[in-house]
């Protein structure tokens, strides 16, 4: 079995958890190692309890979890739920358990079909346990002791004595079943001995009873004579009783006579009640007429108010008109405010008077300013470029002047031509060249002065252009504000036009053409007066309407009251008629019974049997019946005695005939006792111990434990032998290991604490793995446990860091179990497969699942 998904609600510290949740990229929990981490009291053990309770329920069902006093339900919740989806082989199941405070747990298990649908629900804790037993081939207590390794159990296995280890292995593998079989065989042997002794006693008893046979036959003949005498006495009593009428006829006459008297009294009572009701009915009818008269008067006043209300407009329409007038005033004030803002912003512009013309004018001005701004910006850019070019030219010419001055210095210093480097012939030629260069310098200087003047002129133009551009932008900003004012004014003007249309429509519904006409029509100074008047009239109308409803209710109540009394009178008359008819019927039946007894009256019947009242006749008949009953009892007792003695006689004869069979069974029981003696000692005490435990179970256990031990110790140790030992009356188990590092053979007491812990964990894992596939014999019809999940509670506490790495690596690569859930408080060193981290919040615990790829 593997767990596919877990859903927990309000279980202990968890409000809700779902593994895997909807954010995960898998639909079910994958195979592998799950390390459950978290601080103390964070809820790690509670998560395991949720899984165990979800699988097998509580101790009162078939599980190991204590659910007394609603301890499983979260403190602030009314109920808790755990739902598990599990897979066993190719079959899938859903187990759901719900616990409500103060009520029993509700358990249900479903099958999944091939379409992933839930089918075949089974409900009830016992039925679910039975289903799980058949699915997993074991019960909850077996799984708890085998596949749930509790905290401290590893250390216990590592340090326990040989005898205690034998007891633990015997407990886990349920080897005590062989002891139970042995004890059961002993009990069966004792039962057969007891049965043999009982059969021998029975034989002696029957042989003693054979002497009673003649006397028993004589007693039966005497009882038959007494029976015949009683039959004659009973016949005499029957002859006397036949002369009397039956008790039933007498009782019927007496009952009918009493019913006739009662009926006469009832008829008189009905007549009095009907008379009283008729008097009350008269008073109620008078009161009803008064109420109807008052109602008629109130209805006329109501109709007058109703006509008055119909002549007035509705309060809703008046309220709507008031709201519209208020909105109109508000919009008018907004337009005035916008006009003021427009006048303030439009100084410097020549705007026309109408709104449409202003909007058109503003549009033209905006376009003009935009064009002017673009032109000015373009000119400004051109001037800036021109100044830049001029400054470049000036710098170039200054460079030329500097070069020419350097040439003059060279001429004067060396006397060579600066161009061809040829020496001058005389001073005149040198002066002529210098003068020509100085003339060029003067020309360049004049040109630079002209260009500087031109730059200054362009800079003056650029400043003027920038000032003009700033003015254009300021005017554009003003036009932006003006445009906003005009657009808002146009919108409000449009809304005001719609509002005037709505006001006109409402005034038309009031049958007036203007607001002033409305005030004149209803003789009011303000529309609010009309609203108040309508409200006052409506309140008066409502009050009058309520008054009419009260009158109608009172009239209905009186009418119902009158109807109830009339119905009551009618019912009383009908019941009275029934009683009269019943009285007549009873008188007729009474006379028929008297005629049957051949008398006309009750007195005539009493005289015939010399009695003063009918009860005396009944008493006389009852005395005769009692005497007959006593005789019949004696007669039946005799018949019973005769029957019992006859049965006793027949039984004695049957027992005498069974003597041969009893002697045969005594011999069979003796043979069975000898057979049990053979089974108990040679087979159970010798063959089972040597063949089943030593040669089969311990051989398999040694192999699988050695595998885990080598993995957990990085190959240092392997299992050598697991043997049964005996010291006096004490049986135990000895374990020897081979240390592959130093080649020495060691027992577990020679190991270090960490090596012992690794051995304890290997033993526990090996036992659990073996339980998943072992059978007592190869040909056995028993199947192994279908459970491929193991839960380990803190198995790493006694291991150092290196050993933990070895254990975790082995568990991560383990293929014997589909899933391994490992609770740990220790800090793991490397990647440990899937992780479930449990953290405790203020009012609940939270679970975070991280899956490896």
How many DSSP helices?
18
> What fraction strand?
5-15%
Q: Give a short account of the largest sheet.
A: 6 strands, antiparallel
Mean pLDDT: 81
Kindly report how far apart the N and C termini lie: 22 Å
Give the strand order, joined by hyphens, for the main sheet.
Answer: 2-1-4-5-6-7
Unreliable stretches: 776-782
The outline comes out as flat
Please state the structural category: alpha/beta
| Gyration radius, in Å | 61 Å
The helicity comes to 55-70%
The beta-strand count equals 15
Oligomer: single chain
List keywords for this structure.
853 residues, 15 strands, 12% strand, six-stranded antiparallel β-sheet, flat, alpha/beta
What's this, in brief?
It contains 18 helices and 15 strands.
Task: Walk me through the structure.
It is a single chain. This protein has 853 residues and is of the alpha/beta class. The protein is built from 18 helices and 15 strands. A 6-stranded antiparallel beta sheet has the order 2-1-4-5-6-7, with helices on one face. Strand 1 (2-11) and strand 2 (14-19) form a beta hairpin. Helix 8 (247-311) runs antiparallel to helix 13 (527-596), helix 9 packs antiparallel against helix 13 and helix 10 runs antiparallel to helix 11. The relative contact order is 0.13.
């Amino acid at each position: 079995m593997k767990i596919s998904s877990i859903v927990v609600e309000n279980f202990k510290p968890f409000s809700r958890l779902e593994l895997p949740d909807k954010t995960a990229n898998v639909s079910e929990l994958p195979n592998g190692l799950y390390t459950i981490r978290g601080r103390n009291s964070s809820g790690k053990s509670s998560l395991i309890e949720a899984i165990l309770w979800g699988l097998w329920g509580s101790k009162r069902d078939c599980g190991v979890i204590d659910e007394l006093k609603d301890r499983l339900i979260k403190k602030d919740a009314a109920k808790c739920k755990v739902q598990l989806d599990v897979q066993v082989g190719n079959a899938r199941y859903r187990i759901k358990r719900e616990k409500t405070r103060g009520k029993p747990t509700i358990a249900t298990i479903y099958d999944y079909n091939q379409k992933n649908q839930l089918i075949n629900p089974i409900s009830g804790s016992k039925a679910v346990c039975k289903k799980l037993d058949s699915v997993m081939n074991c019960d909850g207590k077996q799984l708890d002791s085998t596949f749930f390794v509790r905290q401290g159990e590893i250390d216990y296995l590592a340090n326990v004595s040989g005898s205690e280890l034998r007891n633990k292995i015997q407990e886990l593998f349920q080897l005590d079943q062989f002891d139970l079989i042995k004890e059961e065989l002993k009990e069966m042997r004792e039962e057969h001995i007891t049965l043999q002794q009982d059969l021998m006693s029975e034989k002696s008893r029957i042989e003693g009873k054979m002497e009673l046979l003649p006397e028993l036959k004589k007693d039966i003949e005497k009882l038959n004579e007494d029976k015949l005498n009683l039959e004659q006495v009973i016949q005499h009593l029957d002859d006397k009783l036949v002369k009397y009428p039956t008790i039933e006829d007498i009782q019927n006459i007496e009952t009918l006579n009493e019913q006739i008297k009662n009926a006469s009294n009832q008829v008189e009572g009905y007549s009095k009640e009907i008379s009283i009701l008729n008097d009350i009915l008269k008073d109620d009818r008078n009161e009803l007429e008064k109420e109807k008269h008052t109602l008629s008067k109130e209805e006329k006043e109501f109709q007058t108010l109703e006509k008055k209300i119909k002549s007035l407009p509705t309060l809703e329409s008046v309220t709507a008109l008031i709201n519209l007038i208020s909105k109109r005033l508000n919009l008018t004030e907004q337009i005035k405010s916008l006009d003021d803002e427009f006048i303030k912003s439009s100084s410097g512009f020549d705007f026309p008077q109408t709104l449409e013309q202003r909007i058109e004018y503003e549009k033209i001005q905006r376009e003009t300013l935009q064009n002017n701004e673009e032109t000015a910006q373009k000119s400004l850019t051109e001037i800036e470029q021109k100044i830049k070019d001029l400054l470049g030219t000036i710098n170039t010419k200054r460079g030329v002047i500097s070069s020419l001055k350097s040439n003059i210095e060279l001429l004067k210093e060396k006397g060579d031509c600066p161009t061809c480097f040829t020496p001058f012939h005389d001073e005149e030629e040198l002066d002529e060249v210098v003068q020509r260069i100085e003339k060029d310098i003067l020309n360049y200087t004049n040109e630079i002065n002209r260009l500087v003047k031109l730059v200054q002129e362009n800079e003056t133009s650029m400043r003027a252009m920038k000032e003009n551009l700033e003015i254009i932008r300021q005017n554009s900003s003003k036009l932006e504000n003006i445009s906003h004012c005009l657009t808002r004014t146009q919108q409000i003007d449009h809304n005001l036009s719609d509002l005037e249309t709505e006001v006109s429509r409402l005034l038309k519904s009031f049958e007036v053409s203007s607001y002033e006409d409305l005030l004149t029509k209803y003789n009011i100074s303000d529309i609010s007066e009309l609203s108040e008047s309508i409200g006052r009239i409506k309140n008066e109308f409502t009050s009058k309407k309520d008054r009419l409803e009260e009158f109608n209710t009172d009239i209905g109540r009186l009418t119902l009251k009158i109807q109830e009394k009339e119905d009551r009178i009618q019912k009383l008359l009908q019941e009275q008629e029934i009683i009269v008819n019943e009285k007549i019927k009873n008188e007729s039946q009474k006379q028929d019974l008297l005629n049957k007894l051949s008398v006309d009256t009750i007195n005539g019947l009493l005289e015939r049997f010399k009695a003063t009242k009918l009860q005396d006749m009944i008493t006389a008949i009852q005395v005769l019946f009692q005497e007959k009953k006593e005789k019949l009892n004696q007669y039946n007792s005799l018949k019973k005695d005769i029957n019992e003695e006859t049965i006793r006689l027949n039984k004695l004869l049957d027992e005498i005939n069974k003597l041969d069979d009893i002697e045969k069974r005594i011999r069979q029981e003796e043979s069975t006792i000898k057979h049990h003696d053979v089974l108990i000692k040679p087979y159970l005490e010798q063959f089972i111990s040597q063949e089943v435990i030593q040669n089969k179970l311990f051989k398999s256990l040694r192999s699988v434990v050695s595998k885990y031990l080598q993995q957990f110790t990085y190959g240092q140790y392997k299992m050598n032998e697991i043997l049964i030992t005996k010291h006096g009356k004490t049986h135990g188990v000895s374990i020897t290991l081979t240390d592959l590092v130093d080649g020495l053979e060691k027992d577990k007491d020679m190991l270090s604490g960490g090596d012992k812990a690794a051995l304890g964990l290997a033993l526990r894992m090996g036992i659990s793995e073996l339980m998943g596939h072992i059978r007592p014999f190869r040909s056995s019809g028993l199947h192994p446990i279908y459970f491929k999940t193991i839960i380990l509670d803190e198995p790493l506490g006694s291991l150092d860091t290196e050993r933990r790495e070895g254990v975790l690596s082995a568990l991560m690569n383990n293929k014997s179990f589909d899933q391994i859930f490992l609770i740990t408080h220790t800090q793991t060193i490397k990647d440990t497969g899937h992780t479930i981290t449990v953290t405790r919040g203020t009012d609940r615990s939270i679970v975070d699942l991280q899956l490896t790829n």
